[in-house]
Amino acid sequence: MALQNFSKFKFFNVTVPAQYVVHIEINRPQKLNAFFTPMWFELKAIVQQLSHDPDVRCILLSGAGDRAFTAGLDVEQAAKSDNPLSADIADPSRKATVIRREILELQDVISAVARCEKPIIALVHGYTYGLGIDLSSACDVRFCAADTKFCVKEVDIGLAADVGTLSRLPKVVGGVTSWVKDVCLSARPFSAEEALKNNFVSRVVNGSKADLIQEGLKYAQYLSTKSPVAVQGTKNILDAAWGRTVEDNLNYTAVWNAGMVQSSDVKRAMLSGLQKRTPTFEKL
Amino acid sequence: MALQNFSKFKFFNVTVPAQYVVHIEINRPQKLNAFFTPMWFELKAIVQQLSHDPDVRCILLSGAGDRAFTAGLDVEQAAKSDNPLSADIADPSRKATVIRREILELQDVISAVARCEKPIIALVHGYTYGLGIDLSSACDVRFCAADTKFCVKEVDIGLAADVGTLSRLPKVVGGVTSWVKDVCLSARPFSAEEALKNNFVSRVVNGSKADLIQEGLKYAQYLSTKSPVAVQGTKNILDAAWGRTVEDNLNYTAVWNAGMVQSSDVKRAMLSGLQKRTPTFEKL
Amino acid sequence: MALQNFSKFKFFNVTVPAQYVVHIEINRPQKLNAFFTPMWFELKAIVQQLSHDPDVRCILLSGAGDRAFTAGLDVEQAAKSDNPLSADIADPSRKATVIRREILELQDVISAVARCEKPIIALVHGYTYGLGIDLSSACDVRFCAADTKFCVKEVDIGLAADVGTLSRLPKVVGGVTSWVKDVCLSARPFSAEEALKNNFVSRVVNGSKADLIQEGLKYAQYLSTKSPVAVQGTKNILDAAWGRTVEDNLNYTAVWNAGMVQSSDVKRAMLSGLQKRTPTFEKL
Amino acid sequence: MALQNFSKFKFFNVTVPAQYVVHIEINRPQKLNAFFTPMWFELKAIVQQLSHDPDVRCILLSGAGDRAFTAGLDVEQAAKSDNPLSADIADPSRKATVIRREILELQDVISAVARCEKPIIALVHGYTYGLGIDLSSACDVRFCAADTKFCVKEVDIGLAADVGTLSRLPKVVGGVTSWVKDVCLSARPFSAEEALKNNFVSRVVNGSKADLIQEGLKYAQYLSTKSPVAVQGTKNILDAAWGRTVEDNLNYTAVWNAGMVQSSDVKRAMLSGLQKRTPTFEKL
Amino acid sequence: MALQNFSKFKFFNVTVPAQYVVHIEINRPQKLNAFFTPMWFELKAIVQQLSHDPDVRCILLSGAGDRAFTAGLDVEQAAKSDNPLSADIADPSRKATVIRREILELQDVISAVARCEKPIIALVHGYTYGLGIDLSSACDVRFCAADTKFCVKEVDIGLAADVGTLSRLPKVVGGVTSWVKDVCLSARPFSAEEALKNNFVSRVVNGSKADLIQEGLKYAQYLSTKSPVAVQGTKNILDAAWGRTVEDNLNYTAVWNAGMVQSSDVKRAMLSGLQKRTPTFEKL
Amino acid sequence: MALQNFSKFKFFNVTVPAQYVVHIEINRPQKLNAFFTPMWFELKAIVQQLSHDPDVRCILLSGAGDRAFTAGLDVEQAAKSDNPLSADIADPSRKATVIRREILELQDVISAVARCEKPIIALVHGYTYGLGIDLSSACDVRFCAADTKFCVKEVDIGLAADVGTLSRLPKVVGGVTSWVKDVCLSARPFSAEEALKNNFVSRVVNGSKADLIQEGLKYAQYLSTKSPVAVQGTKNILDAAWGRTVEDNLNYTAVWNAGMVQSSDVKRAMLSGLQKRTPTFEKL
Q1: F12-225: CATH superfamily
Q2: CA D118 – CA D112 distance, rounded (Å)
Q3: How do residues B226-264 score in pLDDT, each as one tens digit?
Q4: Which residue of F has its CA nearest to B94?
Q5: CATH superfamily of F228-275
Q6: ipTM of the complex
Q7: TM spans, by residue (chains A, B, C, D, E, F) (predicted)?
Q8: Are A234 and C156 within 8 A, CB to CB?
Q9: A255 to chain F nearest CA, in Å?
Q10: Chain A contact probe: residue of B21, B229, B234, B262 with most A CBs at under 10 A
């Protein structure tokens, strides 16, 4: 698997800003990084490749340009293209079938982000609307610029958000709080500060967008010095905890670690600890 | 279904302060809006009617008078009336059966509030004790006055809260936090500020009770301008997420939207968006 | 069951600072209260005994000395002793089996803390690393001193935390938030203030460690004046809510209270309420 | 609660053929006991009343006339009446909402049968089509006459069975077997013998319909001699087991029996056992 | 989507023996239809295509030649090829990661069979070993020839079956019965008759393999005359029932049918019923 | 861990009839092997020891004497001894607490049988009543003698079975069938033949009790020739499937096998397969 292959993508800049760190940049700034059909599948392909790439330990996800992480779905393109909503199918059950297939397919793109074995840090700024919430909710850690304008926008286009937000927002902010209902039912925008207060992001970075990227990169580099076996196992087990009981998750953890604790990382980490050295770890 | 029928209720004022908005006011202020048997069933009847009423898009729930949303169960009435606790049944298993039936019946009233298809905004002030927590936890959004005195009071009457608080509080504040255990185990009162900090309410309204009602009404009117198909679907899907996995909720969402995205609301909302107009939507 | 038996423990001071309140102090201060094998099993034995002791209504858990609640696993001892990691087993599947048994056994110690029928208040200060998080996450309420240094340390020794943290942290802080992922993936230390902001503790006590213990004791005494039937039922039902649906938890609550509401505590509490007296309750 | 009130029902004969045994007979034989709207709600009212009636310990459910338990939904009436399918609603999402409400309401009738605290024995004969499967699947024990013609008929009217069969058939016959898929996908009729072989019924009664009723009555009388606390608890716990883990069900059982084992029934049953007498039990 | 494209597959014969019926034949008879890497992915591609093809209503799956449905994994090829087991990775945790990815990828092939929207009828004969059980368990209906030799073979190659059998066998035969444990723990072969008795197949076809195919085809043609909306909905809802509660499945069914009952199939089926005609349905 | 230690048990004969096979015989034949308090805890100790003993691969469980596997609880002893039912506790909630602890403790004995890492074959004959069903339901495979008299007896002593039967019977026979409800509600005895027909046992052995033991031993020896990694993994994964979704179980299986497939057993088994030799496996 060769990192130089990353140059082949059309709607995303994929770069390697530091060892073990890959930066995915949504690259359609002239349209506020709004998504249309080919972009979805390119994103899925990128994430699936990085998930198994041993040269990757941490991924940054951001949007190109000064104005937006992503403004969400490109509604004009959606209206134009042969999407299921515009399909000329008279029978409501048959139309429902085609729509359901489409939703499941798009959900699967966002789920590929969530399932990526390597941690993904969302670095969001400017408009982070609709799909921007779906996408960043599927990441592991969220930092935002102070100027970010968030919005669970779907109610404003007449539908319940269906590619991930409603399923993952309660998971990543802690329940179906009054605030979650408020922002999802009303489609009102909310600020970086409000996102921080309500646990959607864990850090608001002041300064320019470059500062945000810089801080994300520093964090990603830090994570990349850690045991990849430990980091990726931690991600998997934390995600498996949701919607399941503590007892089931404990057992799952024991089965996971039965194999993983045999890692050379444990010996290296312990030895380095005793010797006050920084350990290095084999690729994963 | 005629809105004028609302005049018939005895313990609740049910009014229509704005188009699509219904206001339910608990109306027993001389007893701090404490509940006794006939009130429970009236509340259930009201909520079930509003749930299906196409003229309703958002519901406000508050308490009459200056002193309380509700002080909870009317303990004196409970002691007097023929309630299961006082029933003269010697056999503990038979008494348990009668008590269980009673609890399930009262839980079903609170669950009717939670299941209502239309969003319900709790506007609480003053004493919001015991049943006041059960009831507001079953609503979607909670605003409170600055003077609100909250209390999960049940431990002080010798029992674990059993009509909803212990099941819904972790859902609406985000888990079984140290704070949830603290207020539920100790039955200590907590303030509006503490409720806000711990995500139980999403807004504290300063000023008089009238200001609280006014702010709630403004918010309800705002929600009522939105697509009812989108708003009500969002509520349903968010509630279905709790205690289930992300994967199950994603699939449920796809099935839900397969039918719902065919709504005229989507076309109206999209068209209005392009034309920079405010859309109107058919009744639901 | 005799409280004087508490003197027999080797690695823990178990005292009775007030009626109905037991204080467990991890007592290996010269090693920052780090755990090694015999300590685990002693802790389990203590907690299981207290769980059923009618003279106990609330438990405090703290660490001896000024420097640490617990620094976690005693890595040197672990390296020395015949632990599974060091076991000379060539076949990875057989080694996995031995490791899994060991993890399940240690998890069961922490789960004994979580299952204790009586509420446990963790009073943490100084180093609260690794196992310190597992242990305090299994308690019901967490207070900390202002000087506490928290750390989900396991990633730094090359493994995913496996005796409880990853399963219980999302439960006690409200979901798999950006912050939970951050501290678990990075193994970075965090402060008392950050723990409070992110709902891991519900109180930061300023002043000396003695002030922390004093405040914990005062709180435990307060809980001990409450109906033990109500308090212990509330704990059980709240814990049962996690990872299960609201509907299942409501039914469980009704079955629980069918028996428990027959308690003399209800009559005593109600009567005392009407008479404005402080009730006393039978042992449980 | 007076058993003589049973005479008031219009579409069901409700009789008391033996002490503690109530017989509900679907009584529209001229239409093969096919259901139309008012029948559903009458059935629900009957079952809810019997569920709490202390004079009832076991219920028999059968169909009047020689030809059918029930042929299912009365399609002609359904077409005529103002049912949601015929409703003139152009918008598919609004029509979906009305249909969903209707399905949930009908499901709730069948679920009332399943939730009835007393065991219900379905005694089926002749046509047992569509709703006949929904209804008998919600009962606890199923006996059938040798002439019974079963059919999961819904596919033949163009829809997936939606008031209970698809949810309960896997529960009552043991999984989503090849046979379950076969009869549900194909809507092919199956015989009493096939129903017995595939565990849908536990007994095929040869002879006349009167023999079937007689055998059911004998069995119901037998169940009615048993401890009602034990019988009703067994029903509740067995139903709670489905779709949940063994561990959760064990805990639920312990909580249930904590109250129920205190029953006088245990003492009476044990004493009678030692004295070789038949015990009698208090009403429940 | 063009059916003639089916000719392009290398290891499978894909034919259209009747309107709406597609027959997939595993075509490596010289190796007892044993699977090696490229076959897996071809199968997945075929099934995913058919799942959405409106010209397909029912799928038959069988094995070419007289000797086997499939003898399972081609162990010799597996040993030769660069499979993860042979990978030269010293660190057990890194090897575990590679193995886990491989298992998940193969499971996903079998799950694609299970998720196929159209019903799949497995027609098995001769050796149906290992993967043959995984594969047929993922189908909806299983018919077998009288000569079939079944075996959950994995224990004999030193591992627990991991691509589906252990997860789906309890679902399709009804629980973790003594028989399921027996055949899975012992890897002993079992006969067609035993498979029928234990509900793994619903029909044993006597005669030649051609008779089996003929009977399967007849059945598939019959299913294809039914409403595709009804058939495919029934499959989806039945599969969703497993491992979930009756209550959750009922709600899911109501949401599903809210959209699907609006189908023209319902009107066509009802009208044809009244007119005693055979209905025809639009493609899906 | 020394097998000779087995001689120390008082109420159980524990022998090693063949390599890797241990036979536990309930040894209180003069009382029909009825259980009283000390027996429970001895059984738990035995099973926990065998679970980790590398010299054990399969366990047989039977009852001494000609008359009974076990007649269940020794009711006379239970009445005499200081059991919770006889405890003189006036307050129903406090009595409930003591009873619940007792039930959980006894459940834990039966669950220790179910959790044993090695497969346990129940060989039952004669009276297999009450606890005999709890115990054999927790085993993996059940064979019985033709003379076995089964009975879910608890209803006859006035209570719902609470140490395992109601939770595990639906799991091991396939759902909450009409037959399960019948035998659990009625407490009627059933025969070996009926147990076989309803999938509770997988084999009825004709002849003497010695023939049953002989057949069980032969089967256990056969299982003991198989890879212990494969056999014990299969048991674990099959049990984990119950009450969970197929998707969750597939993922759990992948994690399990990630470590376990690295076993030397796989290489040995594959090599032996190619060389047509019987493999031998290292201890586990």
Answers
A1: 2-enoyl-CoA Hydratase; Chain A, domain 1 (3.90.226.10)
A2: 11
A3: 999 999 999 999 999 999 999 999 999 999 999 999 999
A4: F92
A5: Lyase 2-enoyl-coa Hydratase, Chain  A, domain 2 (1.10.12.10)
A6: 0.96
A7: none
A8: no
A9: 6
A10: B234
